[in-house]
Amino acid sequence: MRRGTNLPWVGDYNQAVVLDGIRRHPGTSRTELAAATGLTLQTVSNIVRRLLERGLVQEGVALLRDGAGRGAGKPRTALSVRPGAALAVGVQFEREHVDAVLLDLSGVVVGVDREPLPDPLAPVELVVAHAAGLVRRLVGAGGADEGAVRGVGVAVPGPLDFTGPVRSSAINLPGWRGVAIADLLAAATGLPVLVENDATAAAVGDLWRSPRTGRSFLYVHVGAGIGGGVVLRDEVLRGDSGNAGEIGHVVVDPAGPRCPCGSRGCLEAVAAPAAVVRRYVERVGSRTARAAGLRLAGRTVLDDHDLLGARAGAGDREAARVLDAAADDVARVVLGVVNVLDVSEVVLGGAGLRRSGERVRAALAARLGTAMTREVHPVAVRLGEAGEQAGALGAAGAVLHEALSSTWAGVHAPVRQVVISPVAPVH
Ligand SMILES: [Zn+2]
Predict the structure, then answer these.
(1) How far apart are the CA of 90 and the centre of ligand 1, in A?
(2) Beta strand 217-222 with 226-232: parallel, antiparallel or unpaired?
(3) In angstroms, what is the span from residue 411 Cα to ligand 1's centroid?
(4) What is the pLDDT of residue 412?
(5) Residues with Cβ within 5 Å of ion ligand 1?
(6) Which domains does the chain have, with CATH numbers?
(7) Which end of the chain is more exposed for a tag (fewer CB within 10 A), N or C?
(8) Contact status, residue 254 vs residue 229, Cβ threshold 8 Å
(9) What angle do CA 347, 310, 246 make, to 5 degrees?
(10) Could you report the per-residue pLDDT of 115-152, keeping only the tens digit for each?
(11) Rounded to an integer, what distance in angstroms lies between the CA atom of residue 272 and that of residue 144?
(12) 105 CA to centre of ligand 1 in angstroms
């Protein structure tokens, strides 16, 4: 039996089931909900009445059936969520900036904003102050009802320590060893904060916005580093400590460069944006690289990586060579993971794919032609719709999803530990 959620503003498990059904299928009716959930029509009607009273759901135009089948000609009441009834902010830290999105209950992004970070080596408190300012600006700009904002979801690169106050030791972000990020941001914003590994957050976002159920997929998130989020039959795979999916630390070249994790030749050390830029400079020399427009500063690595993507498209063979090599490294690791997990989709996203996403997608599509399951089911590869905001969007979705979803049992235990509520929940 799956465990439900106990957050006070949603209530019981069945209510979460019904609300999730309405959210995923706008325009559905009480009768359809009863059929889909296995609940009696009376139970569904009671729950819908409570959801209407709470303002989470609204009744729409009465639709007429098309005349085919039973109930022909009878009007019915279409149900949908009230988009503004619950909102969440998603925040994603990258080396150079913080992204934030404001997500409404229907899954629509109603605001997007970005704040540059002062310096990768800036004190964490300063970084958090910038993020808090961004959250306030985003909520204010959207004209949103502040009382409807349920919390802030934060996507940060792993590894995360969920055992106490959530601590991030993001190895890509210098100075982020043992940072109690949730505490700091909750204090700075006055909102409950939920922390999620960025790749897992991106996977949650893709799951939450999809009308389909029963999905198994790997989300490959390329930011400053490379991470993976795993969803099996709609359940998020988290592992013992919430850090499952670290595909960036699969060794692809045992003689390769040292990785901050302590190993050598990890995928991240040979194929992440910084590694691609470094390889390009090794091949052409720094003078030529600068003449090509690369700035070669630590904080410009994503911009430099974008520039290489553009140059490769415009005929720079060395740029194309290093990007293709990285794309193939990613593809080989992903193929291995696909074979281990038997997923049928790979979704790509993150700021590191802004200009080279199609190149990685093509490399993956080619490699996946040898997937073990290829004759049982195809493995589709696509670029995620949320693009580089995928982590932020997913973290916001996780805040709403924690209370709304009936299909996401796997996430409850760790998430419950990391929700910090400095203020009373809003009803
Ligand atoms: Zn590593």
Answers:
(1) 27
(2) antiparallel
(3) 26
(4) 30
(5) 249, 259, 261, 263, 266
(6) 13-81 (1.10.10.10), 85-206+389-418 (3.30.420.40), 213-384 (3.30.420.40)
(7) N
(8) no
(9) 35
(10) 888 776 777 888 889 999 999 999 988 677 778 898 99
(11) 37
(12) 37
